[in-house]
């Protein structure tokens, strides 16, 4: 495989006015730092860094413009400093001090690390002047004036206060990612701003920020709001494309890594974008094996995986300074596109692929599948190089292929199940969810499918040609969970297993608590045998949690059993918060003790839409759409053939796999929704 030469280069800009319109190719990185008080020298150094950011040159002009505007769209190039500095500029200029300045992020890791960074820059303790709120974690206080939070958390706050009265400024950051919650927030914030003006309340300033975005779409949506451009790239990036299309992007990325390794100085580190944990672990092992057998005199190589379910301490290793004369190669999912800053990256290898959800309303199937990135994502990836010096990005696709990529990522609201969104909109008392002011409207079929989904769960009903929440639906909306999991919790008292259901749902509400390094596959399998339940993955995880509690969360036990102790501790905190919400609604907190049948029966009554049936030929098909599916190799049921199973999600790679499975009886499914399953279950009684 070879590259013909650089394609379009993201070059250094001129030294003109940084506020002039310029299309940005990439996006800002973020760093996770502590929020402790520092000595005077450190404070001075941090202030110098702030003054060295490109945005500082236009600070006065920017503050003057934002003071005058109700709404602004800010496009900031990579490294401009917009995310960390604009909230501080507003606060320092007393803009919005009558309330709280909110900055939303699509990912919790970004909200937390940004709050820590800004708190450090302001030399305050995290949780005082600057705080953050993410799902199941709130580090704010009465004195917090700058608050970083996930878009989902601001949306939940709007359910209690649609006017968002406590906020004077809402900054919607990373708008180009077009997550489900961000798109809904656009409509909620726009309506809150209008209503506060109508009711003569404290005005709400709205700032939409991004690195790459469909500027015209956003400006039109926010009533022709002006667009401000910030210059920010400090180093050039060369882009190289392949001469020919690559049939195997994994092999191509491996070849690219070792071409770089043989030719570039060892101080130049490499970041490779892959699609998931299994690919990353497999390639990590291959890279290490090849590196061992390179000719004498070749540079050393350290390979670091990076994905969401990796234990926190192992994630931190990618940020540490490497050994002298040893190249760092980081193999990452798209988490490195937006949520973390990895210093020292000179080379980026972009496979052009990503794992994303796809939903088909006709079949009701939501599948996680590997697909091409958009041009916007490709530019974000390229922008990871050249942070501290000029960089190079190798794209493992031709320039012709790149030109056929979508310009922007398809908004999540147009490619996922909308049941959760519909439930939230109804809880927000939106009079007609079919006419809600979406920036990009979902298909009518997707909206109808979501309403039917909620009807089957008993969350909504039709009254006077309106869709309204049932008493059950109002309770479901109070939980920060998918509707199916809220329903499971609320049903659990009927099956006397609320304590166990609380644990199971908490386990699936955090990143994976199990760590499965491929290099130690046999060892992992050996130590996990004692936890495995023939009833499926839900029961197996429940066994792991009980063992974790029995040893008091001992970290050495976690290491020996390949359990992520940080995530398991988070499970306990999530469980406590969900338990509090249950208590608020008077949900009886009973335990089924050793009766796992009751637990599985409860799961069947709420998750029945995710059921599959064993076929005569030994394969599986979903009960609703008859989609052929298979048990994922990671499941404890991989070598089993139960007649009926529930699954948490579908993953499409070489075939459509079911992940996180639970064995159930046909009779339980029929009990859960007799009208729905009467025609679908071969063995169901009529």
Helix run count: 25
Strand content: 15-25%
Strand order of the biggest β-sheet? 4-3-5-2-6-7-1-8
Count the strands? 23
Uncertain runs are 8-38, 682-686
* Count of spatially separate domains: 4
Question: Based on helices, strands and strand pairing, what is the structural class?
Answer: alpha/beta
Cα-based radius of gyration, to the nearest Å: 26 Å
Shape: globular
Write the layout of secondary structure elements.
Layout: H1 40-52, H2 59-68, E1 71-76, H3 82-92, E2 100-105, H4 108-121, E3 130-134, E4 137-139, E5 146-150, H5 151-160, E6 167-172, H6 180-198, E7 205-210, H7 215-221, E8 227-230, E9 237-241, H8 249-263, E10 269-273, H9 277-292, E11 300-306, H10 312-316, E12 326-332, H11 335-338, E13 345-350, E14 353-360, E15 365-372, H12 375-382, E16 391-395, H13 399-404, H14 419-427, H15 444-456, E17 460-463, E18 466-469, H16 471-477, H17 483-491, H18 498-507, H19 521-528, H20 537-550, H21 555-560, H22 565-584, H23 596-606, E19 611-614, E20 620-622, E21 628-631, E22 644-652, E23 656-663, H24 666-672, H25 674-677
Parallel strand pairs: 1-7, 1-8, 2-5, 2-6, 3-5, 6-7, 9-16, 10-12, 10-13, 11-12, 13-16, 15-22, 21-23
Antiparallel strand pairs: 3-4, 14-15, 17-18, 19-20, 19-22, 20-21, 22-23
Helix pairs in contact: 5-6, 14-15, 16-17, 17-18, 17-23, 18-20, 18-22, 23-24
């Amino acid at each position: 495989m070879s590259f013909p030469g650089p394609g379009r280069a993201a070059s250094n800009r001129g030294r003109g006015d940084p506020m002039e319109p310029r299309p940005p190719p990439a996006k800002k990185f973020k760093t996770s730092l502590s929020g402790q008080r520092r000595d005077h020298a450190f404070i001075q150094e941090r202030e110098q860094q702030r003054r060295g950011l490109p945005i500082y040159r236009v600070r006065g002009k920017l503050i003057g413009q934002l003071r005058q505007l109700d709404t602004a769209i800010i496009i900031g190039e990579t490294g401009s400093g917009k995310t960390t500095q604009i909230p501080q500029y507003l606060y320092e200029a007393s803009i919005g001090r009558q309330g709280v300045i909110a900055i939303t992020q699509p990912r919790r890791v970004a909200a937390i690390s940004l709050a820590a960074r800004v708190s450090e820059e302001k030399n305050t303790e995290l949780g005082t002047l600057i705080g953050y709120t993410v799902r199941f974690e709130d580090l704010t206080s009465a004195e917090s004036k700058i608050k970083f939070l996930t878009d989902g958390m601001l949306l939940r706050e709007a359910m209690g206060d649609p006017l968002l009265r406590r906020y004077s400024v809402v900054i919607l950051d990373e708008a180009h990612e077009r997550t489900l919650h961000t798109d809904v927030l656009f409509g909620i914030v726009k309506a809150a701003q209008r209503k506060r003006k109508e009711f003569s309340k404290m005005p709400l300033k709205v700032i939409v920020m991004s690195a790459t975005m469909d500027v015209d779409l956003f400006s039109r949506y926010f009533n022709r709001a002006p667009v401000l451009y910030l210059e920010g790239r400090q180093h050039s990036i060369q882009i190289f494309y392949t001469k020919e299309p690559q049939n195997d992007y994994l092999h191509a990325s491996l070849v690219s890594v070792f071409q770089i390794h043989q030719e570039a100085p060892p101080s130049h580190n490499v970041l490779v974008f892959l699609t998931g944990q299994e690919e990353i672990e497999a390639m990590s092992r291959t890279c290490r094996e090849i590196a061992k057998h390179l000719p004498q005199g070749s540079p050393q190589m350290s390979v670091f995986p990076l994905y969401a379910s990796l234990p926190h301490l192992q994630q931190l290793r990618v940020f540490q300074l490497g050994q002298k004369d040893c190249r760092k190669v980081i193999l990452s999912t798209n988490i490195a596109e937006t949520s973390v800053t990895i210093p020292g990256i000179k080379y980026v290898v972009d496979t052009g692929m990503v794992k994303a959800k796809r939903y088909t309303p006709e079949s009701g199937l939501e599948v996680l599948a590997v697909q091409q990135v958009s041009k916007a994502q490709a530019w974000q990836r390229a922008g990871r190089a050249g942070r501290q010096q000029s960089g190079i990005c190798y794209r493992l696709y031709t320039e012709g292929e790149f030109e056929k990529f979508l310009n922007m990522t398809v908004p999540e609201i147009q490619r996922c199940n909308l049941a959760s969104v519909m439930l939230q909109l109804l809880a927000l008392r939106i009079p007609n969810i079919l006419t809600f002011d979406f920036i990009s409207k979902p298909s009518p079929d997707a909206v109808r499918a979501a309403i039917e989904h909620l009807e089957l769960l008993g969350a909504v009903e039709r009254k006077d040609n309106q869709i309204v929440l049932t008493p059950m639906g109002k309770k479901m909306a109070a939980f920060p969970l998918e509707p199916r999991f809220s329903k499971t919790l609320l049903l659990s008292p009927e099956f006397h297993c609320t304590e166990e259901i609380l644990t199971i749902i908490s386990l699936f509400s955090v990143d994976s608590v199990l760590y499965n390094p491929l290099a130690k596959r046999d060892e992992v399998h050996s130590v996990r045998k004692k936890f495995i339940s023939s009833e499926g993955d839900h029961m197996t995880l429940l066994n792991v949690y009980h063992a974790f509690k029995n040893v008091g969360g001992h970290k050495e036990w976690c290491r020996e059993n390949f359990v992520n102790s940080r995530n398991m501790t988070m499970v306990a905190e999530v469980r406590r918060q969900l338990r509090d919400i249950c208590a608020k609604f008077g949900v009886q907190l009973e335990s089924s003790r050793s009766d796992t049948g009751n637990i599985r029966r409860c799961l069947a009554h709420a998750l029945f839409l995710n059921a599959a049936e064993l076929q005569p030929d030994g394969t599986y098909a979903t009960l609703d759409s008859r989609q052929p599916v298979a048990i994922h190799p990671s499941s404890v049921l991989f070598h089993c053939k139960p007649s009926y199973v529930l699954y948490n999600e579908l993953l499409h790679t070489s075939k459509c796999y079911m992940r996180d499975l639970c064995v159930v009886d046909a009779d339980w499914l029929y009990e859960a929704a007799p009208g729905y399953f009467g025609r679908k279950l071969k063995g169901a009684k009529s």
